Amino acid sequence: MDVKTAIDAQGWKIYELEGTLFFASAAAFQNLFTPKDDPQDVVIEFRNACVKDPSAIVAIDSLAERYRQAGKRLHLRHLSPDSLELLEKSRGHGRDQRARRPALSYCG
To answer: I need a surface site. Which of 4, 46, 52, 76 has the fewest CB within 10 A?
Structure first.
């Protein structure tokens, strides 16, 4: 995966991803982000990226937890319909898992 970063007019950091998030890229995905150095609100822009498998969901959830632990908010923007469906399906499995997962904001 490739990433470009920018700070928008509101002071939010935007991580613009390009590529596919799946089992082979999940570890590298984690290394793209710096929660302790980032502002209060962070956006992952998926316009040019897609989420392909359950390991990608785990990677996103793990990253969201890192931001939550840092007291920051993570927003996901422009997920493809297929990627969003995969995320939502994974969140619907198991009441205990849902309760432990950090909240994510899905932007349009």
So the answer is: 4
Enter the pTM of the model. Answer: 0.79
In this predicted structure, what is the pLDDT of residue 78?
86
pLDDT at residue 99 is higher than 50 = no
CA distance linking residue 20 with residue 108, whole number of Å: 19
Q: Comparing C-alpha atoms, which of 37, 23, 24, 27 is closest to residue 15?
A: 37
Q: Which pLDDT tens digit goes with each residue over 45-78?
A: 999 988 888 888 889 989 999 999 999 999 989 8
60: exposed, middle or buried (Cβ count in 10 Å: 0-12, 13-18, 19+) = buried
User: Strand, coil or helix: what is 13?
Assistant: strand
Instruction: Return all residues near 8 (Cβ < 8 A) that are at least 6 apart.
Output: 14, 43
